[in-house]
TrEMBL record:
Coiled-coil segments on the chain, per record: none
Any single GO BP term: L-histidine biosynthetic process
InterPro entries noted in UniProt: His_synth_HisIE (IPR023019), HisE (IPR008179), PRA-CH (IPR026660), PRib-ATP_PPHydrolase-like (IPR021130), PRib_AMP_CycHydrolase_dom (IPR002496), PRib_AMP_CycHydrolase_sf (IPR038019)
Compartments, record wording: Cytoplasm
Segments forming domain Phosphoribosyl-AMP cyclohydrolase: 30-102
Keyword ATP-binding attributed: yes
Name of this chain's protein: Histidine biosynthesis bifunctional protein HisIE
């Protein structure tokens, strides 16, 4: 495959920053660097290749972990000195186990201060992975995919399921059945994530909102 790289401006070290974005969710996954060879191999193979500045060698993302990135598109900015690579991410993009490398909140306008950092293997990682699966099924799910069925049915169907699962969770709690509460609330959380995905809201935004509320002094909501 012949691709013209003449408009790409590599820096004095022969590198260009590449922002990697999930093609389905638009979540920013990571930032890495490419040189001419890794960019060519990315185009040739259809999977991301980068240049490691620390090891001074080419590396194929996910070659050892299996968390590969299938390239959907590559764009360059108006100056030609940075790339935007949209991919289909398999597994986690970050070596910590997080779906995205950008999983460490520093500040937002609601909190006005540093926010707590979620653990990679904690609730953030679980929700991020489930959300990734939901967004993947939304686009690539087969005829038997329940997730795709919900999106194809539309917003009213999704809202109805959220209401139904909330009601079933309430009933389980009134019956003082702990196992049923866990089961029904798991269904509720799943359908809530589907609703977030419908609005293209990442669960990280929800956690940041909660963290921002917790960090406010004398917050009457808690």
């Amino acid at each position: 495959m012949q691709v013209d790289f003449s408009k790409i401006k590599f820096d004095e070290k022969g590198l260009i920053p590449a922002i990697i974005q999930d093609a389905a969710t638009n979540a920013v996954l990571m930032l890495a660097y490419m040189n001419g060879e890794s960019l060519a191999k990315t185009v040739e193979t259809g999977y991301t290749w980068f240049w490691s500045r620390s090891r001074q060698e080419l590396w194929n993302k996910g070659a050892s972990s299996g968390h590969v990135q299938k390239v959907v598109s590559i764009d360059y900015d108006c100056d030609g000195d940075s790339l935007l690579v949209k991919v289909e991410q398999k597994g986690a993009a970050c070596h910590t186990g997080n779906y995205s490398c950008f999983s460490y909140p520093l500040w937002n306008s609601g909190a006005g201060r540093n926010l707590p950092v979620p653990e990679p293997d904690g609730i953030h990682g679980i929700l991020a992975e489930l959300y990734r699966v939901i967004q993947d099924k939304r686009v690539h799910g087969g005829e038997k995919s329940y997730t795709r069925y919900l999106f194809m049915s539309g917003q009213d169907k999704i809202l109805k399921k959220v209401g139904e699962e909330a009601a079933e969770t309430i009933i389980a709690s009134k019956n003082n059945n702990g196992k049923e509460v866990l089961y029904e609330m798991s269904d509720l959380w799943y359908h809530c994530l589907v609703l977030l995905a419908y609005h293209n809201i990442n669960p990280a935004e929800l956690l940041n909102e909660l963290g921002g509320r917790r960090s406010k002094e004398n917050n009457s909501k808690y």
